[in-house]
Design brief:
By secondary structure, the protein is of the alpha+beta class. It contains six helices and four strands, in the order H-H-H-H-E-E-H-H-E-E. The chain is elongated, with a radius of gyration of 21 Å.
Length: 164
């Protein structure tokens, strides 16, 4: 009997998330900002506790999910229309490597080690440090690696808003 209840709870939770995604758009789980990431993690937590906790009503889980989506949509709208809210909510991307050189102060600010950086460079198939034009620690915690031929240049727009 408990297995049926868990399957029912899982089904209701997943259907609720799908409906909310259709209403709010895929941006809800996009991880474009640290706030988006936090909301995604919170939704996962609500789903998990709704599915496996017999003490929590399914309706309470649905309300919690709706609440998270409403807050996320509201914050996304505010971020889009006001610069001060965006700077308050979002982290600032940081340049940690430029022109094949590691920027040690920025590496320390991001709390990354050189080994972490080299791992990210390998993931990006960068095989020569001299061909790495820029490495950016993004607002979401992801690391972007811009690399190519030595005579390639990075468009300034791609580094707009990135702290040097």
């Amino acid at each position: 009997m408990i297995a049926v209840e868990i399957i029912f709870r899982a089904f209701v939770s997943v259907v609720t998330v799908i409906l909310l995604l259709r209403l709010n758009g895929l941006r809800s789980f996009s991880k474009m900002s640290s706030f988006d990431f936090a909301t995604t993690v919170a939704c996962g937590s609500v789903i998990a506790s709704t599915v496996i906790s017999p003490d929590q009503s399914v309706l309470l889980g649905i309300f919690a999910l709706v609440g998270l989506f409403v807050v996320q949509a509201t914050v996304a709208r505010i971020r889009t229309h006001t610069g001060w809210a965006q700077s308050l909510i979002d982290n600032e991307p940081i340049l940690i490597m430029e022109g094949g050189r590691i920027l040690p102060d920025n590496l320390r600010r991001t709390k990354m080690t050189e080994d972490d950086l080299y791992s990210k460079l390998r993931e990006a198939n960068a095989y020569d440090l001299d061909r790495v034009h820029a490495v950016v620690f993004e607002t979401t915690g992801d690391v972007s690696v811009l690399h190519g031929d030595a005579d390639d240049t990075v468009s300034p727009e791609l580094l707009s808003g990135v702290r040097r």
